[in-house]
């Protein structure tokens, strides 16, 4: 049975005097215990909003969340504020994009880690601080006994992210959501943080939702991948399947835009043309149509529905054909 | 800060500086710039000198400030008061008391009133502003409506109005009047600081760990407001001192003039302003210099905290 079942998750933002804006539009996916699931898509496609909705962290006013988020048979969306607060940090943890601003500048690292333990495990400050040093050690922060009394600005970017990971995993949650945890870091540090995350979730059996716009991250980490476009899942597949044979034109474009070392000389990169601002509403069309090389007339008239094609889920009227993908690449 | 910015704009800008994601130690980077800032150093020097004088004035004052040693040199009818003479460098006042000693000891009252009024104002503003910012909704609307009305009245006028409400003015009614005027300033500052932090990344991260709202407010948000609060307190000390002096000057202060106070000294000297301007000059100069010291210090602290100037 799945650890997390997200069904028809929809988030509508409504600011006073403005048109309602659907940031997440009927997203469904499962996360099995211990599994790593990727949420991929370009900026603004609703990745962060999806994760905040699962965590119950969206503002109460101005954001309407519908659908269901079943975590071990409990619908998180139906929990009261207090009940959800008891679960955050204990059953579900989250790591954010910017490690610097996610730490409180005026509180020492040790106290920030200890706070979670005091909160959920009723530890005394003293015991929690000892435990905190152990946790910092586990995430690879050298000299943890000195570090616990330091402030965030005294740590490097990579160390800060390690500290945040320690906080999120302090109470051994069964699900960790990492929202672009390496985007703000140096390239060399990125790899270290990713392998740390990978090791930690493997050791502890924690399920991980990895949010990223970087398919390289997905390739190294995820078991299953959900590709989001304009607030909807447009393709879902096992990692190997997806990389070997992207079927949705958007996924195809994403993969084609990654420079590959093994690419034949002279092969041009194929970036996806246009930007999110070209999106048209999903109401009676495919939102990707203005940018899609495969677009047909029907794409601007009928909303594509999610359909199973073999073991993968696709939302497209005219998906890239497996063979076509080969010949297209070969002919460039 | 742009010229012509209103009192509210200045408070709001300061409140925003409580969200710091520059990644440097705020205190360290601010100090690095302050250390080389002559304006700050002058302000700091004046302030330290003032506090030192206030602390030791009873010991260094050459005479008892309430003793009428020179009373036989006062001839009211001929408008004569004791001139400067050996042992009395500034002469005596209208009651024949040593003027220099009274100036020195007067610093104590000024410091006490200024500090207490600021503390009370800060406490009141802290409670109101934190409540408004943390709870939001109608509490916020109500508190801020009142605060904004109070802020739109010139502070001195408001202090007079409150001071005049008391039938028997004394040192504490002065403190209450002056403190009340400062409450809306701190309330707006702290509320702005809470709002700025409410959507900040570190508060979101704390929420993602299940930290309770009360702890988020008091352990995560209030400490980040400390910098702006210190800046505002320094500036408020200057206005408190001026407001308190003005109340005493107008007779809304302590009626017992045995304990010297600069505003009151200035007030009683008005009778003889034409013939003996020095009696008015000295207390006025003291008030201005001390207020200037706090203002210089506060303004340079404000600049140092401004995110635009951080490195
Ligand atoms: N609080 C909010 N109020 C209104 N709109 C919002 C709010 N938060 C997010 N949005 C909008 O929802 C959309 C999805 O935002 P989201 O942050 O989920 O994107 P993302 O996929 O995480 O992108 P990025 O890669 O830039 O982080 C965006 O268009 C954004 O402007
Ligand atoms: S539905 Fe049409 S426009 Fe949308 S991705 Fe598929 S082919 Fe392209
Ligand atoms: Mg995001």
TrEMBL record, chain A:
**UniProtKB keywords:** ATP-binding, Cell membrane, Membrane, Nucleotide-binding, Transport
Query: InterPro entries in the record, alphabetically?
Result: AAA+_ATPase, ABC_Ni/Peptide_Import, ABC_transporter-like_ATP-bd, ABC_transporter-like_CS, Oligopep_ABC_C, P-loop_NTPase
* Gene Ontology terms: biological process: peptide transport
- Which cell locations does it reside in? Cell membrane
Cellular compartments per GO CC: plasma membrane
Q: How does it sit in the membrane?
A: Peripheral membrane protein
In Gene Ontology terms, what is one molecular function of this protein? ATP binding
The segment(s) forming the ABC transporter domain are 4-255
Report which superkingdom the organism of origin falls in. Answer: Bacteria
Entry's PROSITE patterns? ABC_TRANSPORTER_1, ABC_TRANSPORTER_2
PANTHER family according to UniProt: DIPEPTIDE TRANSPORT ATP-BINDING PROTEIN DPPD (PTHR43297:SF2), OLIGOPEPTIDE TRANSPORT ATP-BINDING PROTEIN APPD (PTHR43297)
- Family recorded in the similarity comment: Belongs to the ABC transporter superfamily.
State the protein's name. ABC transporter ATP-binding protein
To which species is this protein native? Solihabitans fulvus
TrEMBL record, chain B:
Q: What is the annotated localization of this protein?
A: Cell membrane
Q: Record's Gene3D superfamilies?
A: MetI-like (1.10.3720.10)
Q: Which Pfam families match?
A: BPD_transp_1, OppC_N
The record's keywords, sorted A to Z, are: Cell membrane, Membrane, Transmembrane, Transmembrane helix, Transport
Give the matching InterPro entries.
Answer: BP-dependent_transpt_permease, MetI-like, MetI-like_sf, OppC_N
Listed transmembrane segments: 39-60, 111-139, 146-166, 172-190, 229-252, 281-301
Q: Does the keyword Membrane apply?
A: yes
**Keyword Ribosomal protein attached:** no
- Topology relative to the membrane, per the entry? Multi-pass membrane protein
GO CC annotations on file = plasma membrane
Location of the ABC transmembrane type-1 domain: 107-298
Name its GO BP terms in alphabetical order.
transmembrane transport
| Homology family | Belongs to the binding-protein-dependent transport system permease family.
Q: What is this protein called?
A: ABC transporter permease
């Amino acid at each position: 049975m799945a650890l997390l079942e997200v069904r028809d998750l929809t988030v509508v933002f409504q600011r006073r005097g403005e048109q309602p804006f659907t940031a997440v539009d009927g997203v469904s996916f499962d996360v099995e215990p211990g599994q790593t699931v990727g949420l991929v898509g370009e900026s603004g496609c609703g990745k962060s909003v999806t994760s905040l909705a699962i965590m119950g962290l969206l503002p109460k006013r101005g954001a309407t969340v519908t659908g269901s988020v079943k975590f071990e048979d409990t619908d998180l969306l139906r929990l009261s504020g207090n009940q959800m607060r008891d679960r955050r940090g204990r059953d579900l943890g989250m790591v954010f994009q910017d490690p610097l601003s996610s730490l409180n500048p005026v509180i020492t690292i040790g106290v920030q880690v200890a706070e979670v333990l005091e909160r959920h495990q009723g530890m005394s400050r003293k015991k929690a601080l000892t435990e905190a040093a152990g946790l910092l050690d586990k995430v690879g922060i050298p000299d943890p006994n000195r570090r616990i009394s330091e402030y965030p600005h005294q740590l490097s970017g990579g160390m800060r992210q390690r500290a945040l990971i320690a906080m999120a995993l302090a109470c051994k949650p069964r699900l960790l959501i990492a929202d672009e945890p390496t985007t703000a870091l140096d390239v060399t540090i990125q790899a270290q943080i990713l392998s740390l995350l990978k090791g930690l979730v493997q050791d502890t059996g924690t399920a991980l939702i990895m949010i990223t716009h970087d398919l390289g991250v997905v390739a190294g980490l995820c078991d299953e991948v959900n590709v989001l476009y304009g607030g909807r899942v447009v393709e879902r597949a096992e990692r190997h399947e997806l990389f070997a044979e992207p079927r949705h034109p958007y996924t195809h474009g994403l993969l084609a835009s990654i420079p590959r070392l093994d690419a034949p000389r002279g092969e041009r990169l194929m970036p996806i043309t246009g930007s999110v601002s070209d999106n048209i509403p999903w109401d009676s069309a495919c939102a990707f149509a203005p940018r899609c090389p495969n677009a047909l007339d029907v794409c601007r008239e009928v909303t594509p529905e999610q359909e199973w094609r073999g073991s993968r889920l696709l939302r497209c009227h005219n998906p890239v054909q497996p063979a076509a993908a080969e010949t297209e690449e070969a002919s460039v | 800060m742009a010229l012509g910015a209103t009192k509210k704009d200045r408070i709001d800008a300061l409140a925003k500086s409580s969200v710091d994601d520059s990644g440097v130690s705020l205190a360290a980077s601010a100090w690095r710039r302050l250390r080389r800032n002559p304006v700050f150093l002058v302000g700091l020097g004046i302030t330290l000198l003032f506090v030192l004088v206030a602390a030791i004035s009873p010991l260094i004052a050459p005479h008892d400030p309430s003793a009428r040693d020179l009373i036989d040199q006062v001839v009211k009818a001929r408008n004569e008061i004791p001139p400067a003479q050996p042992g009395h460098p500034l002469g005596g006042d209208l009651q024949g008391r040593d003027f220099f000693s009274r100036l020195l000891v007067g610093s104590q009252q000024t410091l006490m009133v200024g500090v207490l009024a600021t503390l009370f104002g800060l406490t009141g503003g802290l409670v109101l502003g934190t409540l408004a910012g943390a709870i939001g909704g109608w509490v916020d609307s109500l508190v801020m409506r009142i605060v904004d009305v109070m802020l739109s009245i010139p502070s001195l006028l408001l202090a007079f109005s409150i001071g005049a409400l008391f039938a028997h003015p004394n040192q504490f009614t002065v403190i209450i009047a002056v403190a009340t005027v400062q409450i809306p300033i701190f309330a707006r500052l702290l509320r702005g600081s809470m709002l700025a932090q409410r959507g900040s990344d570190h508060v979101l991260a704390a929420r993602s760990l299940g930290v309770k709202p009360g702890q988020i407010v008091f352990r995560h948000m209030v400490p980040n407001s400390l910098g702006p609060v210190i800046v505002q307190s320094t500036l408020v000390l200057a206005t408190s001192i001026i407001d308190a002096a003005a109340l005493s000057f107008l007779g809304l202060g302590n009626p017992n003039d045995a304990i010297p106070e600069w505003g009151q000294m200035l007030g009683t000297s008005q009778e003889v302003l034409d013939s003996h301007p020095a009696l008015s000059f000295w207390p006025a100069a003291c008030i201005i210099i001390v207020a200037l010291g706090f203002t210089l210090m506060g303004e340079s602290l404000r600049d140092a905290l401004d995110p635009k100037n951080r490195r």
